[in-house]
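Reviewer 2 asked us to include a model.

Predict the structure of this chain.
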Amino acid sequence: MSGRRRNHFILCGNQGNCVWESYDYGKTEVDTEVSRLQVLKASYESQRYVHQDNFLFKYPELIKKTENRLYAMEKDIRKRDQALCMEPDFFVTLNGLRYDEREAAGSVILEMAHSLESMESRTVGSYKGFDVVVEKSILTVS
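Predicted model (structure tokens):
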């Protein structure tokens, strides 16, 4: 019995049935369980600090950025609605020329995009009060 610990505890079921239990734990079993619990505690503390940082710093910043984007989108929607009331038909101005047909305007935009250097962007006109920007990235033309 030396070197072994005998732990006693009571297990109670949900109907009040209690059973007296005793287990023999050797030193290696106790050390293993302590190590396992230390790893769990370290993991818990790490996650706790991550969540605390998210709550205090990351989420407020993310909320503010999202609110700003939402405000800008609402402003753009109002601007679009005003432009649609004033001029409901399609027209776009590209390089100072007015295009009434979508297909012709799309062809001009594609030509402008292909003429750009890689990683270059250029404002080429306007549509319903918004700038039309053509950008050529390394992978695609947008």
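The two ends are 79 Å apart (CA to CA). The helical segments are 27-86, 102-115. We have added this to the supplementary material.
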